[in-house]
Write a structure and sequence with these properties.
This protein has 30 helices and 11 strands. The strands form 3 sheets. Strands 1, 2, 3, 4, 5, 6 and 8 form a 7-stranded mixed beta sheet that branches. The chain has a two-stranded antiparallel sheet with strand order 7-9. The longest helix is centred in the N-terminal third of the chain and has 30 residues. The N terminus is likely disordered. It is mainly alpha-helical. Helices cover 57% and strands 6% of the residues. The protein is elongated, with a radius of gyration of 29 Å.
């Protein structure tokens, strides 16, 4: 039998060696772009339109694998250096132009304190590791309130990383399978299935890693690759079936866009919706009576051709103004900027993408050296921008060290950021309690506390700190109290887990949070066994409103759940409940960095910083349980206003937690409240 006689069995049959150019796939790119841009513009008609990126993934896997198969058909192998050079020519120039432009715009328009983060994110984008960086810092793409100006580069990073490993895996599979298409498909199919299962599992554990990591997203590109590999069989499907399948896929896009939303556990199983829909449209093979009837149109194909540059431009155009104005864009603003991104995308395609792709020095036979030189030059420029020094962030003069009374009264509120501000604006995020550095804060999946001990470890008099990160922020004050009174301080806190007995979802996981319920039950049992002299309880009450998973009214349910916990604790120990601290619209340090000599612009009306009705209800049930309520707002705000500074001290490390410095300054006031409770 001749080597290539059985066309279904060999990798590169004589007939139909590659998939022909598909004009409808250009239109499919346009559809993906429209979905992504309208999602970021705030168009609410299709809340699940973030699936546009998944469409890009499947298309990329399909086209790239088709190119690899065509090369194997022609030469019997794959030139990796040529493949990589072609990818760099195609993607790097436009991406670099946008990175540099975004750096410059950020430098000119954003608060200076944000430039350090912009630099870090930009460097990650330049080195195609944005996805890993965002996962590492715990970014939630679907609900992050302070997104990076380079956040959209995560999908490009995944594609670049996929392009790095997929050709190697494909080539090795071809060699191992001796060019038998079915065997190659089995090998690649196993890898795709493993990636999908990992994605499903990790979505319920860490949505950030599930969303951004290549191993959990590779299956989407891999499905496109398997579809290209299976094309000889797909091409035999009847025309009528292709038409029906393509329209079914198009309908699935609409259904997914209408029914999916950012609160769902995505990607996970739900990512099958856009992946299957995209594959179905591709299977339609461009039949004019199928979905290609809508996609294979001049305007759609034109938009598809410029989709890469448009995608690059749309996000910084939308996010930089939103950060400047410290509010979400209105729908007209978002749509206008979306249109502007199309204009810039067309310019990028015309002036950057196409000329660079055809530049003789980069397309000659041995172009890899020239391409590598281009990469080195680009990364050097971006690194230089990224490492540029942020200006010194202070105004004029020094300020006095405040007392607890000065913090609340605002009597030492400086008109400009003092030169001796502590912590510095740049270091504010790092001014955290020791419990974090010591690993004493329970993580999301933990169901028992770390029970870290501070103060006098041998003392029989025990003080317990119980709650979430709003409790942990008071650790410096509680530690000072325990040391001064010879008590043993036990930390029993869990981030994102309310001390109130109320059902909530896990933040960033968008699923029920049984680990929180188990942690609370276990902690209460452990506290009772300790027989402590006092328990200090605190939690971010208003912050759980969007995570509430019950069927009733949040305020009523939350207050009742808090009362049950207080009553249980009050049955065997003294309890002090510390109320919520102010929540800011943006981290005070960021605001101050843009108003170094006008700190008054960064004050906040107390009614806007707090939830008075909820705080009042919390105080009432605390008193009814026989416990003591400490109103944290009274320690940090005057009757009318909350201040970001007191003397030389920065009072907040972010938009919802006080700094460790402030907690230590407020230690005397906290200690007085604890003493009045009578441990």
């Amino acid at each position: 039998m001749a080597k290539h006689a059985v066309t279904d069995a060999v990798l590169y049959p004589a007939a139909k060696p590659k998939v022909p150019f598909r004009r409808d796939i250009e239109g499919l790119r346009a559809l993906a772009l429209i979905l992504v841009v309208t999602y970021h513009a705030g168009v609410g008609l299709l809340p699940g339109s973030y699936i546009g990126v998944d469409i890009f993934f499947v298309i990329s896997g399909f086209l790239i694998t088709g190119l690899l198969m065509a090369e194997v058909t022609k030469t019997g192998s794959i030139s990796l250096r040529t493949f990589y050079a072609r990818r760099v020519r195609r993607l790097l120039p436009a991406a670099t132009v946008v990175i540099v432009a975004t750096f410059i715009a950020s430098k000119l328009l954003l608060p200076p304190l944000l430039l350090t983060q912009v630099a870090k994110d930009g460097l990650a984008s330049a080195f195609n590791v944005t996805n890993m960086w965002l996962a590492w810092i715990g970014t939630d793409y679907l609900s992050d309130t302070t997104p990076s100006v380079f956040q959209h580069y995560w999908s490009l990073a995944i594609e670049e990383q996929f392009y790095l490993v997929w050709p190697v895996i494909f080539l090795l599979s071809v060699k191992w399978a001796r060019n038998r298409r079915a065997s190659v498909a089995i090998v690649l199919g196993i890898l795709v299935a493993a990636s999908f299962l990992l994605c499903v599992w990790l979505t319920g554990v860490s949505r950030a890693w599930a969303f951004f990591a290549l191993p959990t997203r590779a299956w989407e590109l891999g499905v496109g690759g398997l579809l290209a590999l299976a094309w000889p069989w797909v091409s035999r499907i009847s025309t009528r079936s292709k038409i029906a399948v393509s329209w079914a896929g198009f309908a699935l896009f609409i259904i997914g866009g209408l029914t999916m939303n950012s609160s769902m556990a995505f990607p996970g199983w739900l990512a099958l919706v856009p992946v299957i829909a995209t594959a179905a449209v591709i299977i339609g093979d461009g039949e004019g009576r199928g979905a290609a009837f809508l996609l294979d149109r001049g305007p759609m194909r034109w938009l598809g051709r410029i989709s890469y540059s448009t995608y690059l431009w749309h996000w910084p155009l939308m996010i930089i103004p939103a950060i400047m104005w410290n509010r979400p864009l209105t729908l007209p603003e978002g749509l206008a900027l979306g249109v502007l991104s199309v204009v810039l995308g067309w310019l990028g395609y015309t002036l950057v993408e196409e000329p660079m792709r055809a530049l003789p020095v980069l397309v000659k036979r041995r172009s890899l050296n020239a391409v590598l030189a281009l990469v080195l030059t680009v990364t050097t420029v971006v690194a230089g921008l990224g490492l540029s020094r942020v200006p010194q962030l202070y105004g004029g003069g020094d300020a006095a060290v405040p007392t607890a009374a000065d913090v609340a009264s605002g009597s030492l509120f400086p008109s400009s950021v003092p030169r001796n501000v502590t912590p510095s604006l740049e270091a504010s995020l790092d001014d955290i309690p020791a419990v974090y550095g010591d690993g004493c804060e329970a993580q999301y999946l933990d169901v028992t506390s770390k029970e870290c001990v501070y103060g006098d470890a041998d003392s029989d008099s025990v003080l317990v700190m119980f709650g979430d990160s709003r409790a942990s922020q008071w650790f410096p004050a509680l530690e000072a109290y325990a040391v001064a009174r010879g008590m043993r301080l036990v930390a029993m806190t869990k981030s994102g887990c309310t001390p109130a007995d109320v059902p909530i979802d896990a933040y960033q996981l968008d699923r029920p949070f049984p680990e929180c319920d188990a942690f609370r039950r276990n902690a209460l049992a452990e506290i009772e066994d300790m027989k402590p002299a006092m328990v200090v309880v605190s939690g971010y009450a208003a912050g759980y409103r969007d995570l509430y998973a019950g069927s009733g009214e949040f305020e009523v349910d939350y207050v009742s759940g808090f009362a049950r916990v207080l009553s249980e604790l009050a049955g065997f120990t003294e309890v002090v409940a510390i109320g919520d601290t102010p929540t800011w619209t943006r981290a005070p340090a960021v605001c101050l960095s843009a108003n170094l000599d006008d700190t008054a612009s960064c004050t906040l009306d107390r009614r806007d910083a707090m939830d008075p009705e909820l705080d009042s209800a919390m105080e009432s049930v605390t008193n009814e349980s026989g416990s003591t309520f400490l109103d944290a707002a009274d320690l940090l705000c005057s009757v009318d206003s909350c201040f970001p500074l007191a003397g030389n001290e920065l009072l907040y490390r972010d938009d919802r937690h006080i700094s460790a410095t402030a907690a230590l300054t407020l230690a005397p006031a906290v200690g007085a409240a604890l003493d009045s409770a009578g441990p």
